[in-house]
Amino acid sequence: MEGCAKPDHEPEWRRIWDRSFAGKELSQAETARFQEISIPGYERIGAPRVSFDSAADVWIKARKAGTPADIAATLKKSMATMCCAS
Predict the structure, then answer these.
(1) pLDDT tens-digit map of 4-63
(2) Which residues pair with 38 in a beta bridge?
(3) Which of 23, 43, 51, 53 has the fewest CB neighbours in a 10 Å radius?
(4) In sequence order, which residues have a C-beta less than 8 Å from that of residue 38 and are 6 or more positions away?
(5) How many alpha carbons fall within 13 Å on the CB side of residue 50?
(6) Torsion of CA 54, 46, 4, 28, to 10 degrees
């Protein structure tokens, strides 16, 4: 579960979020509803996405990531350095 609530859906989004993090199993309908009322983090901040945005494609190609496995490894390494700096 990631992202944030779409406008006017915050209380419902939070209830589903809280249930999930309380260890309660969500039904398929609840999971689908959560996706409907969520804004993905990449969309919220306008981040370019590989295979969707040319800027991201140029970035990943510059790192010589040609296969899906290479791309995944490159993205994982990049995210680790951005998110885990202390």
Answers:
(1) 999 999 999 999 999 998 989 999 999 999 999 999 888 888 888 888 888 888 887 887
(2) 5
(3) 23
(4) 2, 3, 4, 5, 6, 13
(5) 14
(6) -20
